Each structure stands twice: as structure tokens, then as C-alpha cells.
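Cont'd.
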Amino acid sequence: MTKPILEVKNLEKTFQIDRNRVLKAVDGISFEVFPGETFGLVGESGCGKSTAGRTIINLYDASNGEVLFDGKNVHRLKGKNQKKFRREMQMIFQDPYASLNPRKTVMDIIAEGLDIHEIANGRSREEVVYELLETVGLNKSHATRYPHEFSGGQRQRIGIARALAMEPKFIIADEPISALDVSVQAQVVNLMRKLQKEKGLTYLFIAHDLSMVKYISDRVGVMYLGRMAELADSEELYDDPLHPYTQGLLSTAPIPDPVQARQREKIRIKGELPSPLDPPSGCRFRTRCPHAMAVCAQVDPLWVEAKPNHWVACHLYPKSNPQ
Amino acid sequence: MKPILEVSDLHVTFRSEHHEVKAIRGVDFTIHEGEVVAFVGESGSGKSVTFQSIMRLLPQPPANIDKGTILYNGRDITKISETEMQKIRGKEIAMIFQDPMTSLNPTIRVGKQIAESLMKHQKVTYQEAKDRAVELLKMVGIPSPSERVNQYPHQFSGGMRQRAMIAMALACSPKLLIADEPTTALDVTIQAQIIDLLKDLQTDTGSSIVFITHDLGVVAEIADRVAVMYAGKIVETGTLDEIFYNPRHPYTWGLLASMPRLDQTRDQDLASIPGSPPSLVNPPVGCPFTARCPYAMKICQEQMPETTKASDSHQVACWLQHPDSPKVENPIVSRR
């Protein structure tokens, strides 16, 4: 079996809110990502998926646990190795309006990494940028323009070109399409898939849109209140979701098909997300779970392989019970 | 079914010193009593502007209704005075907006904001209105409503704020509820709760709902009929099943195909629509979708197609419907 390119081990990220309160945004998640695959990370707002992404790329320090990229702990890298890591892992952000500097030309935005890492200058810098623009479906003439002159979809392409400039191995895409119109979403997703094939990229795709995540991902992890609830191959996860939260998410995700929408059985998740400052004891999901039992309030369910390659943390699956 | 809102040939333009944006360019539709009609389209297609101009919520200038009639219960509301409009707005036709944080007043208690509309439209005392506010909050599923009624919007979660907005809109039992992307800012599980709530309320009160959204998944959950908008025009309208299973307009085909279905295999690319919508400063003379349409013909550039009937409830504005046009099969395999 191939070695994972990314190993996340018991990763925790806490934020000190004030003297007495600590917010555990990511509370001990573990997963691996293999070279060339797309790993989808889904969950509702506040589940910690973006914090996880930002901690993995070392925008945040880890509070506990570790992230290994190519076998090296990304939070311990120094000097040359750190610089190399900064090139090899890149990020695409959600909001293409906020993530591009409005005062820079597209050329300077895309070339910023080239300049910092002293990869190219002068003519070759220009040529690299032109080539990247072509790659993402824009053209040379766009290089001298400013971000406000572009539509949302085009800006997202510029963000992708900027990430590609570093010739990364691994790209974290944090909700890259949720700010875009439906027809444009498909353009950007197709582009990302094409680039993955051509360049052998590995993606961590963070999103809340379940149908898009299923379509783009090889494997999917479902997060809830800082914890991983379930992880499986995307087909498997959608065919046989084990965790009640995943079941609820899948059955309430709108599907663009009226007959299916009428026929399917809906599992409603009641109530709202509890405050992450004061999460429920035991299983985090128990306050909204249709199957909650006494044990759920007392004991944290273990992270177990309920079926081959299908992991879940839920007391409905006997092995999850620590006793 | 009796028509409640009839809009014909509506034109809305935004004028500034240098620009003229023709946001709505001749829109016709009818909303009947007790039905849920979804308006879908991309940002800038004019779906929100249509209803904001019907409600007279757009500042004039820059916005202006250049042409068209809007009949509410048979009466042309483009002709009535602002005072008369105030009697309709909130009482007969109410609106819910996308972002409940910016559409609730942060400095006024939620209960008072709901009571305001009751006191404006009905002869009730403040105390009566506030008691009614508690009932309304309860009806939309807010727990411990008698405490919540005295709280400020920031003490509510996103989903609860949207519920409060719905309570406010329902305060005077409007005949028509316009919901402008009411679930877009919400998480999936909360979105499902709000859709259920709207469906239940619609069944209970029998009011009509206009549901503005860009999410075809949400449309499939809630609508009876669908109108597809593009570049300030309605390009196709039909029943829910007609739009999803027998769409006629290439733009509708594109929209449907660009959403991944749960049964979609991963080896095929998503069908995307190339390019982006035209600028409405100088809108194209012909069909606005021409530049992105794989089936575009010469005539499409030159002349806007007439709206033709595919069935009594199904109308399309596309040259492909013309008897002399080449026969093009809907590329989406029917999934029924």
C-alpha cells in the first residue's frame, strides 16, 4: 500500500477566548490522505473543518497532536524545510473577493510566491504567469488587470493560478466554490479535476455541499463540533452512512430531483448546533440525535472501523463502547 | 385557482450618471392563490429585483419601473400612492430576506419588531401585539418564546433569526409571502427545518409563496411551479416536473446538468455552462443566452425569441421551439 502524503494524528486546536474560556475548535481528529486522491472534509459551520485546514497548512499552530506531511511534522519545520513545505502545500480560499489583494495586478498576485521564493524574475516570471493564466482558462491580456475587473468565477481561477505557481503537491481548497453561481461552480470543479489529472495533485476539499463533495472526493470525513464523526470512501459513505449525523445530513441535503425528493425518507435533525464553548458531554451529537441513549451522555464513543475502511464514532456500533 | 399577482411586461432600469442597467427587461408571470412558485437564476438575473420593485423597496432613483403593470388582486399597484402601498406592504404581501442579521434591527427587541407590524396594520394595543408576537414565535418553532420575545437579534442563532423573520412576515397573515433566498445563509440541517416550516405554514394558512433561490435542490423540495430567469427575462416557466423532467430551454438544461446528482459517477465531467452572463448595461438585442448557448443560431443573435407554449402550464422563450429550427434533443437523460 502506498504511503500517505498527509497524516493527521489526534490534531487539536484550541483558542483562548478570555481568561476562563477556551474554545476547542478541533478536538482530536485523525485521518490520512494518500497521494493523488481528493479527501473531502464536510460539516456545518462551526464544526472546525476550516480550522483543521488552516492548522494543517500551518497557518495556525497545533495545540496538540501532529500533522505529518511526507513524514515530517509541519509544525516543527525550520529554515529550508519550512520553505519547501510552504511551496509544496498551497491553499485556495472561499471568498475570491477577499483573498486577492485589490491593489495588485493579476500578474503580481500570481507571481508573489515566485518572487518570495526567488523562482523566476524578469521575462521568465512573465512567461510563467502567462502560462498559468492559460492553464486556468484565462489569457495573457488579463495579467495587467486588477481583481475588481473580474467575475467571481474568474477570481477563483486567479486564486487557483496563484496556488499552482508554486508547483505544489498538495492543495487545501476551503469552500472553493460556495461563493459562486451554480453554472460557474461546475466550471471551477471541472478545472480542479483536470489539473489534478495533469499534475498529479492531492486535494483536501473542505465544503458543506454534500453532493459536490461526493462528486469530487475519493474519501470523505464528516466533522461535527470539532470531532470526526465518520470517515469512508465517498461511494460507501453515501450508500451506507453509519453515523446518525451523516444519515441526517444526507437525507436533508436538497437534491435537484422532485420525484426523489418526494419519495426519500427524511431523517430530520432537530435543534441547533450546541455552543462549541460548552459542548455536550460524551458524544457531541447526542443532543440532536434521534438514537441517543444513556451511555451517549456519559462516555465518548471510540473511533472504530465498523466496516472495512469505514470508520465511525458512535455508540450504536458496539466496538465504539470502550468497556 | 384565482390569480393573486399578475405581472406583465415589467421593465426596471437602474440609472446613474454614466450608466443605465436594464435589470428587468419585460417580465410576465402570474401567481395564483395557494401555490408555491420558485424563481431561479444566477446572481444578476433579476429575480430579487423583480420582487423588490413589486414591493417598491428599491430607491427611486436610481431604480425606475419604465413600463409594465403589476396587478395585485386585480388592482394595478404601480399606479397607487405610497400611503396606499403601505397598507399592502407587510399586510397583504410580506417579504423574508436572505440575511436575517442585516434585516432585523439590532437595537430593538425581537418582540417589539414583530409587534410593530401588527400595530401598524391592525388596531391593537402594544400589549395585545406583544402577546401575539409570543404566539407567532411559538408557531415558528422558537423554544421558550415568552423569554425570547424580550431578547435582541444578536442573542438568536442564524436559524432562529430566520424563524423570527418568518414570524414577523406572518404577523398580519399575508396572502402572498415573498421569500428571497431565505435558506441560503443557513446550514443544511437548519435549511431543512426552515423549508419544512414554510411548507407547513403554507398548508395551514393557504397563502401563496414566491421562493427566490439559485439552488435547484431547494426548488425540488418546495415548489409547485418554477420560473427560470436569465439576464432580466424569464426564459422558461412550467410546473416543477416540467422544468426538471422536460426542460426545453438550453439554459435550464445547463443549470440542471451543472449540479452533481447523488447518483453521478465520477468519471464524467460536470456539464458546465461556459462563460458568464452578459452585461445589462448594453444587453444583447437577441436572446441573451446566445453567447453561452451550444445550439445558438444566426437568428438568436438578431432577435429575441417569442414565448411559446410547450403545454398549458409550460412556456419557453427559445428559437429552438420554432417549427423551422433544427430538432435538438434535451441532452439530459430523463431521470424519471
